[in-house]
């Protein structure tokens, strides 16, 4: 067996695991379940001025201010009004060397799937103009395909700490 084949198999094994799947428009996506902190129903979100259009604002979740990102807007999809199925997935992302809780708004949550490494393919190549760095892989489930996201890379350009700082009370220097 070649070293390249062994490296590919090792990468596939690393991607294997449980994924929380959710829907945006008519597409299904998945997040590594270990990155999901909790699921909450859609709630009032406090808008934060001068933030990108995909930043809905912040919520107060048991005393912690959490920024909320509209994944539809982040992906350039048409915005829709929240429904009964709309929810916020609170995820842990790594940003600037620290762990940050962030909410992502999705149309609806589907299920948790256990996806074997052999059922996950690398993202397709669309050419140099299309960035697919945020896609962890393509999960083949029966006849369907789930787009597995690397949530750190999806939210990499978002200054989450800056959004939290806007709403957090300043602590006086002592």
Task: Write a structural description.
With 174 residues, this protein is an alpha+beta fold. It has helices spanning 3-15, 71-74, 151-154, 160-167, and strands at residues 17-24, 27-32, 36-41, 55-61, 64-70, 87-95, 98-106, 108-115, 120-121, 135-141, 144-149. Strands 8-1-2-11-10-9 form a 6-stranded mixed sheet. It has a 5-stranded mixed sheet with strand order 3-6-7-5-4. A hairpin with a 2-residue loop joins strand 10 (135-141) and strand 11 (144-149). The longest helix has 13 residues, at 3-15. It is globular, with a radius of gyration of 17 Å. 26% of the residues are buried. The model is unreliable at 161-174 (pLDDT under 50).
Q: Which SSEs are present, and which pair or pack?
A:
Layout: H1 3-15, E1 17-24, E2 27-32, E3 36-41, E4 55-61, E5 64-70, H2 71-74, E6 87-95, E7 98-106, E8 108-115, E9 120-121, E10 135-141, E11 144-149, H3 151-154, H4 160-167
Parallel strand pairs: 2-11, 5-7
Antiparallel strand pairs: 1-2, 1-8, 3-6, 4-5, 6-7, 9-10, 10-11
Shape: globular
Helix/strand class: alpha+beta
Give the count of helical stretches: 4
Rg, Cα atoms, Å = 17 Å
Parts with pLDDT < 50 across at least 5 consecutive residues: 161-174
In round numbers, the mean pLDDT is 84
H and E string? HEEEEEHEEEEEEHH
Helix fraction bin: 10-25%
Strand content: 35-45%
Strand element count: 11
- Tell me the distance between the termini: 63 Å
What order do the strands of the largest sheet run in, or round the barrel if closed?
8-1-2-11-10-9
User: How many strands, what sense, and barrel or not for the largest sheet?
Assistant: 6 strands, mixed
């Amino acid at each position: 067996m070649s070293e390249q084949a062994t490296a590919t198999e090792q990468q596939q094994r690393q991607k294997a695991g449980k994924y929380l799947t959710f829907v945006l428009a008519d597409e299904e996506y998945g997040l590594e379940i270990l990155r999901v902190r909790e699921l909450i129903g859609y709630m009032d979100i406090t808008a934060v001025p001068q933030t990108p259009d995909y930043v809905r604002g912040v919520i107060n979740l048991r005393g912690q201010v959490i920024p909320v990102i509209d994944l539809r807007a982040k992906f350039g999809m048409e915005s829709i009004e929240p429904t009964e199925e709309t929810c916020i997935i609170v995820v842990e992302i790594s940003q600037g060397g620290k762990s940050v809780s962030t909410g992502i708004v999705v149309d609806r949550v589907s299920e948790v799937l256990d996806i074997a490494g052999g059922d996950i393919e690398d993202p397709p190549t669309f050419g140099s103009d299309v960035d697919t760095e945020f896609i962890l892989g393509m999960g083949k489930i029966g006849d369907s395909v789930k787009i597995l996201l690397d949530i750190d890379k999806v939210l990499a350009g978002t200054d989450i700490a800056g959004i939290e700082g806007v709403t957090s009370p300043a602590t006086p220097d002592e």
